[in-house]
């Protein structure tokens, strides 16, 4: 694959930013991958591990000369970083982000710029893990995973094509989706399961003999709760940033649990088997 562009600046050199920077280097997709992180240790580690070609001391000086800027900071930090970048962004610079929620990013850009700049293409890689930080970065993280881009009517075709090609070149399948639809779908498939895992483990951990309970936990419990080891701050941010869609999914889920509870209480085998059979068929269909 030939170079897509000259200089890419990745702001936020954690799991996702570090993995993308590594993949860009591994596939030689640009001449120089520059990293910036507010934590100087993450930045120094990124340079030492060869995740980036150069470490930027001054984010704004680097942003002023970058061809592509990737915002890979936590969801709640995106607006503040965009506000800092605004005065130095050149009209030709292409901007994208990797935030797990898209409505809040689009609203932040609208507040700052009046409308989302044509060369800002919001994005979200559906890949990751419960780990965080630069030491968890992996150049193969996006291979065979989906990346959702949520362009707007004013989005620049050239910018959209370049960002799509960047993700495809690191092994991802690129899909496009409306911003609101993205947040609804992700509330159901990612945000709700993470919140349920946190809530289940927290509920059990409050019990006095919880160490005893966890000692006997089987692989099903481990599979179901793996994501409860994810970064609490990141999930706090996502919970608030996608509040409306998440609350709706929690309400739907609560109604479903209540139906199951009622069926068990009244020993309605038909209702219980109906829930389990439908769920089994749906689960087998998608795996
Ligand atoms: P991370 O904690 O591993 O990395 C975030 C990095 O951003 C840290 O190194 C932190 O020091 C840096 N940072 C924070 N505020 C900053 C600021 N103002 N300026 C510069 N650097 C700053 O987190 P991550 O898992 O890589 O998540 C990054 C983004 O990717 C988030 O928006 C998240 O929603 C999204 N995302 C995460 C996953 C996942 O599974 N972890 C998956 C898809 C998308």
UniProtKB/TrEMBL annotation:
Residues 6-287 form the Prephenate/arogenate dehydrogenase domain. The lineage of its organism: Bacteria, Pseudomonadati, Pseudomonadota, Gammaproteobacteria, Oceanospirillales. It comes from the Bacteria. Monomer. Signal peptide: none annotated. Belongs to the prephenate/arogenate dehydrogenase family. It is found in: Cytoplasm. Catalyzes the transfer of the enolpyruvyl moiety of phosphoenolpyruvate (PEP) to the 5-hydroxyl of shikimate-3-phosphate (S3P) to produce enolpyruvyl shikimate-3-phosphate and inorganic phosphate. This is 3-phosphoshikimate 1-carboxyvinyltransferase.
């Amino acid at each position: 694959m030939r170079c897509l562009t000259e200089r890419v600046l990745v702001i936020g050199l954690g799991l996702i930013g570090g993995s993308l920077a590594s993949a860009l280097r591994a596939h030689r997709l640009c001449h120089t991958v520059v990293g910036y992180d507010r934590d100087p240790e993450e930045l120094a580690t990124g340079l030492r591990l060869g995740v980036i070609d150069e470490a930027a001391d001054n984010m704004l000086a680097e942003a002023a000369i970058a061809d592509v800027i990737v915002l890979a900071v936590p969801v709640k930090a995106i607006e503040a970083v965009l506000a800092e970048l605004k005065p130095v962004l050149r009209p030709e610079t292409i901007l994208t982000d990797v935030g797990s929620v898209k409505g809040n990013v689009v609203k932040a850009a609208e507040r700052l710029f009046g409308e989302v700049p044509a060369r800002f293409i919001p994005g979200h890689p559906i890949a990751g893990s419960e780990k965080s930080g630069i030491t968890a970065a992996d150049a193969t993280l996006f291979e065979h995973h989906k990346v959702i881009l949520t362009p707007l009517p004013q989005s620049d075709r050239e910018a959209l094509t370049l960002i799509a090609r960047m993700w495809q070149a690191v092994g991802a399948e690129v899909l496009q989706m409306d911003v609101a639809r993205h947040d609804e779908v992700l509330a159901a498939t990612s945000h709700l399961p993470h919140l349920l895992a946190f809530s289940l483990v927290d509920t059990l951990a409050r019990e006095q003999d919880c160490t005893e309970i966890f000692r006997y936990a089987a692989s099903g419990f481990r599979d179901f709760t793996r994501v409860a080891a994810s970064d609490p701050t990141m999930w706090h941010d996502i919970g608030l940033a996608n509040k409306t869609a998440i609350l709706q999914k929690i309400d739907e889920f609560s109604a479903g649990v209540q139906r199951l509870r009622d069926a068990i209480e009244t020993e309605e085998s038909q209702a219980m088997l109906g829930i389990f059979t439908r769920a089994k068929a749906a689960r087998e269909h998608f795996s």
